[in-house]
């Protein structure tokens, strides 16, 4: 479980707005799904090399498009996403686009 206090602190460091407990919970959920998706993709990369250990390069070589689609999927499922969560998704998605 990702510590909510840490997430809230990071959020507060990056905005002058108040941060609701609900927005923290949503971002924690999104981060957890992001980690799960990235881990599965990294696992596939390691398996292609016939390894049982996920290495940094496996994470770095994750298919950005599939990860981006998963992030947008999470956003679409959430009916009332807070502004900060939407902004987080936009930034994350744009970062993935730039890396490719």
TrEMBL record:
<feature type="domain" description="Transcription factor CBF/NF-Y/archaeal histone">
    <location>
        <begin position="2"/>
        <end position="62"/>
    </location>
</feature>
<dbReference type="GO" id="GO:0005737">
    <property type="term" value="C:cytoplasm"/>
</dbReference>
<dbReference type="InterPro" id="IPR003958">
    <property type="entry name" value="CBFA_NFYB_domain"/>
</dbReference>
<dbReference type="GO" id="GO:0005694">
    <property type="term" value="C:chromosome"/>
</dbReference>
<dbReference type="GO" id="GO:0046982">
    <property type="term" value="F:protein heterodimerization activity"/>
</dbReference>
<protein>
    <submittedName>
        <fullName>Transcription factor CBF/NF-Y histone</fullName>
    </submittedName>
</protein>
<dbReference type="Pfam" id="PF00808">
    <property type="entry name" value="CBFD_NFYB_HMF"/>
</dbReference>
<dbReference type="GO" id="GO:0003677">
    <property type="term" value="F:DNA binding"/>
</dbReference>
<dbReference type="InterPro" id="IPR050004">
    <property type="entry name" value="HmfB-like"/>
</dbReference>
<keyword id="KW-0963">Cytoplasm</keyword>
<comment type="function">
    <text>Binds and compact DNA (95 to 150 base pairs) to form nucleosome-like structures that contain positive DNA supercoils. Increases the resistance of DNA to thermal denaturation (in vitro).</text>
</comment>
<comment type="similarity">
    <text>Belongs to the archaeal histone HMF family.</text>
</comment>
<keyword id="KW-0238">DNA-binding</keyword>
<keyword id="KW-0158">Chromosome</keyword>
<dbReference type="InterPro" id="IPR009072">
    <property type="entry name" value="Histone-fold"/>
</dbReference>
